[in-house]
Amino acid sequence: MINVHKVFRSFRFAGQGIVDLFRYENNAKVHLLIAAAVIIAGLWLGLARTEWAIILTQIGLVWAAEAFNTALEKLCDLVMPELHPTIKAVKDLSSGAVLVLAITSVVVGVIILGGKLVDLLYSQYSFR
Predict the structure, then answer these.
(1) Cα Rg for the chain, rounded, in angstroms?
(2) Coil, strand, or helix at residue 25?
(3) Which of 22, 51, 64, 75 could form a disulfide with 47 if both were Cys (CB 3.0 to 4.6 A apart)?
(4) Distance between CA atoms of 75 and 81, rounded to whole angstroms?
(5) Residues marked as binding for a divalent metal cation?
(6) Range of the domain at 15
(7) Coil, strand or helix: which one is 81?
(8) Tally of structural domains, the chain
(9) Which residue out of 31, 66, 67, 69 is catalytically annotated?
(10) Which residues are annotated as a binding site?
(11) Is residue 51 annotated as a catalytic residue, yes or no?
(12) What distance in Å separates the CA atoms of residue 60 and residue 35, rounded to the nearest whole number?
């Protein structure tokens, strides 16, 4: 039988993790601001459903990667508070993964939003 109380408690803990991510982590705040700008641009450009699905998936992936990176860095700091080459490598790889995903998201955003913007400018100014 499913313990509904445990399920709701788990959601509450997860929600607190999301709040803490955006409250205390500077990079997560940057990702949040960029996501807001992308969403505003998407509304202005009139994205299609599929384009929204792709954009929102990219935003969610970057936020999730940032959360995993933050969790891993906090765990590393707890396990090994002093400098250690292996811990440094783990932290560098984790933050590098976030960077790879962020760059990929920018490319996806440029393809979708940039394409829409070019179409909009072309239709308004009819460059023929």
Answers:
(1) 19
(2) coil
(3) 51
(4) 10
(5) 25, 73
(6) 4-125
(7) coil
(8) 1
(9) 66
(10) 25, 66, 73, 82-84, 91-92, 95
(11) no
(12) 9
